[in-house]
Model the fold of this input.
Amino acid sequence: MTELNAPQPPADIPAALPRFEDFGLAAPVLQSLAEQGYAHPTPIQAKAIPVVLQGRDVMGAAQTGTGKTASFSLPIIQRLIAHANTSASPARHPVRALVLTPTRELADQVADNVKAYSRHTPLRSTVVFGGVDMAPQTAALRSGVEILIATPGRLLDHVQQKVLNLSQTQIFVMDEADRMLDMGFLPDLQRIINLLPKKRQNLMFSATFSPEIKKLAASFLTNPVLVEVARSNATADRVSQVIYKVDEEAKRDAVVHLLRERELKQVLVFSNTKIGASRLSRELERHGIRAAAIHGDKTQNERMAALEAFKNGSIDVLVATDVAARGLDIAELPCVINYDLPYNAEDYVHRIGRTGRAGASGDAWSLYSDKDARLLADIEKLIKQKLVPALIEGFSGRVSRQTDRGDRFERAERHERHERSQHRGERAQPPRKEKVDPWFLKPYEPSLPAEPKAEPVPSNAKTSQPVRRAALLGGVRKS
Ligand code: AMP
Done:
């Protein structure tokens, strides 16, 4: 496994950039930053922290891996310190900051960060997300927390159960807003916004800025300051993008070759179809590469097991469809491979945004065959960059030697595409998205009470013991 244990080195930070001390952050916050090993703010932090401290609304253009979590968490903690108290009364600990994230994994990561940064203050924080028992979350909410990190559906569950009052929320953060819209959370977001006081500070972060995102921003941000570290829809500078020209029927062998030759670990491979993902994963395993597929036809247990195996290093390659990968929130990987070029160019930006983290570089490799010319052109137009095809010797200009098995597979894959386009009343176009699976794209539905507990729910900062655990977002953290 890639070494993720040490604190991430700061992204190229010129000496002239401010230090955390320059923002006027309180001593307990500076102490926790020193413990994290952060000496200097990353560019997004340098830009966002002063603006958030002023109480302004912010529209942040930043991908995961830029240090954006601290760019909003640190000034939130600083702004709330005036309210920090050690009273046992829940009434003295109302929710004052609400952070919404699209997935449980991201929610957990943000919560870990908030806990780490606020550990020397009496501020309380907790996280609520779906798929786990509500009872411990309810207990944490009832005892009072100032900073709440949540996924939209589970937050509304708690509102419906009347354990949560958001009427004192001063700061509202929407993290990865583009993914929230992609995942169908817009109605939930609107419901949640209606529960918040009209007068509040709003922070919105998004990796891409589609017209829908701009519309959402216009509807709830007031005179926002645009804070960006990369051009909108720009691909991370640190990601090295290579397009390999291969014959269509040589793609699987080419992936095996790349994985073997470079001895790659922790690789996320994207397939456009569920059947393609499954088949590629089986093929990799046949070649002795530890792999698993994750997509909408897998059970929740299978998906959780695959993700866990990927995180703990017992498999090296996860083959995923776009929708499945979105639900998983796996990021900061050393390498992402596009086995298929995505049908939608924005998905390319999302996919390669999984690699490269603060201060580190990443590889994004894509396989490309003659039939992908239009998809490649769309991507190049979006990222405003020409991707020059490279060759892997022996994998292009081959004579087709498709087997019966290959034919059957191609037919099944065509059938999967055809079914979807029929479903959407379309004819020739390839599918825009995998058929919606509730685990990945969960609009608000009240949960059944007390599902069996699947993951420990972090309790608030005061009671949690420092633990070290592997995570793909930011490596091993103390919480
Ligand atoms: P994020 O984009 O918030 O997910 O952060 C990406 C990674 O950068 C995480 O591992 C953080 O722990 C790390 N990080 C955030 N801020 C800094 C900093 N100022 N210096 C070094 N690493 C940082």
Notes: The radius of gyration is 23 Å.
